[in-house]
Design goal:
Layout lengths: L17 E4 L2 E9 L8 E6 L10 E2 L2 E2 L9 E4 L8 E2 H8 L4 H4 L5 H13 L4 E3 L5 E3 L5 H5 L5 E3 L8 H8 L7 E3 L23 E3 L7 H7 L8 E3 L20 E3 L21 E3 L27 E3 L8 H7 L7 E3 L12 H11 L5 E2 L2 E2 L2 H14 L1 H6 L8 H6 L3 H8 L19 E7 L9 E6 L4 H12 L6 E7 L2 E8 L16 E6 L1
Parallel strand pairs: 7-9, 8-10, 10-11, 11-12, 12-13, 13-14, 14-15, 15-16, 16-17, 17-18, 20-24
Antiparallel strand pairs: 1-2, 2-3, 3-6, 4-5, 18-19, 20-21, 22-23, 22-24
Helix pairs in contact: 8-9, 9-12
Length: 516
């Protein structure tokens, strides 16, 4: 640690304040000397702990503590910025230079008039990654940007919810607020800030290092909130949101390591229509209040559910989803649901057949023709099993539990004829060939290559094949794929040990090949 002779003024209440250091953000945890060096030091905890060097100690003395063993550093005050107020940040973001339009004689008054004239019609203010740290002079925000409906303050230097409320209470029309990538101290009295967020309908708090209990603690501030985004936080076990978030219609919890059964706590949200749970590690869902084939009282309004990129492998989970009374849209890409023949198209048919109310699957509308085909095939697929279970209108309870819709489908289409029954086939991945086109987006002169590959082929062997074709080491290859069913979306192939079938790659899909 070197000595810096020039030391800028440090706020008296610097501990807990947010600072920027280059492109990085941190929180001040200590202000003072660090012997044997002279001068003032700031002990900071980095948002990205890999940026740090220690846990807040130096030569055996603990000056502050960090959540991560190497999340802290000591820096000179000259190396950091404590940020600027809202109006200064708006001016900087929208690049209005007051010196160019004002005389020096009455700079402050004229500057405010210029700002009022320039900004009073703004309905959207985007200040993501700016250094805004608070409201500034009292009442000036209401005068200057009174019509803001959407405010983006993601990745700023705001330190607390009190700072945020001091800004938003001057924005009477604010409906959408983006606060992702901030680290905000919790309010001492959340209910005192209800008025500051009284018009708020949409709130983004992605990557804010929050737990669910902290969200519930803050929730009284948002009495009218309808859409809440909480992706990439520290949310694990979910508790019931009793008395809060009752107006919520959409909730996104993507990329949080959720405790499995605690998801049912969200059933206490009576108006919840849209629930996003991708990359949360889910493998099961059970609604024990309802028997197979009947409807659960939980999630009464839930219409859309996103379960992409989870660990769901049991078909009983799909049967449980059939209990949701309002579910019409489901996303379940890249799970482990596999049919007996190993064909992804068959698995898709089974999902459609099991979920009679479903209108959209994986972003694609289910046509009446597709539904009819899926349901008739389902009857044939399990017809022999149905006969062995007793057939007729009273098959065994075990069969009914595994196929809750089967009797409904028979009522709809009639019982299968003996000659129509599809014999259960062994897991036939090895025999199933997929026609795949390899394309090379970074090398437009290279022609696409078409190959027929078994669905059971692991990605490692695919890369080996590409090495022989391209003479590029497999370790340098990066693969993604696109599907005709989901136009315009690339899906990452990120594990060499998974099969093509695991990634739901189907016949006629394209694999995009890039290399470093």
């Amino acid at each position: 640690m070197g000595v810096d002779q020039t030391e800028p003024e440090v706020p008296a209440d610097a501990v807990g304040k947010r600072v920027s250091c280059g492109e990085e953000r941190a929180t001040v945890r200590y202000v003072g000397p660090v012997p044997p060096t002279a001068g003032l030091w700031l002990g900071i905890e980095w948002d990205h702990p890999d940026r740090g060097k220690h846990n807040g100690s130096h030569k055996g003395v603990q000056y502050f503590t960090c959540r991560h063993p190497k999340g802290g550093s000591f820096v000179r005050p000259t190396k950091v910025s404590f940020g600027v107020d809202y109006l200064t940040a708006v001016q900087e973001q929208y690049q209005i230079n007051s010196n160019e339009v004002l005389s020096q004689a009455s700079k402050t008054l004229q500057w405010l008039r210029v700002l009022e004239h320039s900004f009073e019609r703004l309905t959207t203010v985007c200040m993501s990654n700016s250094e805004v740290n608070g409201p500034g002079a009292e009442g000036e925000i209401r005068k200057t940007t009174p019509n803001v409906q959407l405010l983006d303050m993601s990745g700023t230097l705001l330190s607390s919810w009190e700072d945020v409320a001091a800004i938003t209470q001057q924005l009477d029309q604010l409906e959408e607020l983006l606060l992702s990538k901030n680290r905000l101290c919790l309010p001492s009295d959340p209910s005192a800030h209800c008025q500051a967020f009284s018009s708020l309908r949409i709130l983004f708090l992605n990557n804010c290092d929050l737990t669910w209990s902290q969200i519930l603690e803050c929730a009284p501030m948002w009495p009218q909130l309808q859409d809440l985004h909480l992706e990439e936080n520290n949310i694990t076990e979910l508790q019931r949101p009793d008395g809060v978030l009752q107006s919520l219609k959409a909730l996104s919890l993507n990329c949080n390591p959720l405790v499995q059964d605690s998801v049912l706590s969200l059933a206490a949200l009576p108006r919840l229509e849209n629930l996003n749970l991708p990359c949360t590690g889910l493998s099961r869902l059970r609604f024990d209040d309802a028997a197979p084939g009947s409807q659960t009282a939980m999630f009464p309004a839930l219409m859309s559910l996103n379960l992409n990129d989870n660990n769901i492998s049991e078909w009983c989970v799909v049967d449980e989803l059939a209990k949701l009374p309002s579910l019409v849209k489901l996303f379940c890409h890249r799970n482990r649901l596999v049919s007996s023949d190993g064909n992804p198209s068959t698995a898709t048919q089974m999902v459609i057949a099991k979920l009679g109310q479903l209108l959209v699957l994986n972003g694609r509308e289910i046509s009446p023709k597709e539904r009819r085909g899926a349901e008739i095939d389902y009857i044939k697929m399990f017809g022999e099993e149905w006969l062995k279970a007793g057939g007729g209108s009273l098959p065994s309870s075990q069969f009914t539990c595994q196929h809750p819709r089967y009797l409904t489908l028979i009522d709809k289409y009639g019982a299968p004829e003996e000659g129509e029954l599809k014999k259960p086939e062994p897991f036939a991945l090895k025999n199933q060939l997929l026609k795949i086109t390899f394309v090379f987006p970074d090398d437009p002169e290279r022609k696409p290559i078409e190959k027929k590959l078994p669905a059971s082929m692991v990605v490692q062997k695919v890369k080996g094949l590409l090495y022989r074709l391209l003479k590029i080491p497999a370790a340098n290859l990066k693969l993604t794929y696109t599907s005709l069913k989901v136009a315009g979306t690339e899906f990452e192939i990120d594990s060499d040990l998974k099969t093509l079938q695991f990634y739901s790659i189907e016949d006629e899909d394209q694999v995009l090949v890039r290399w470093s």
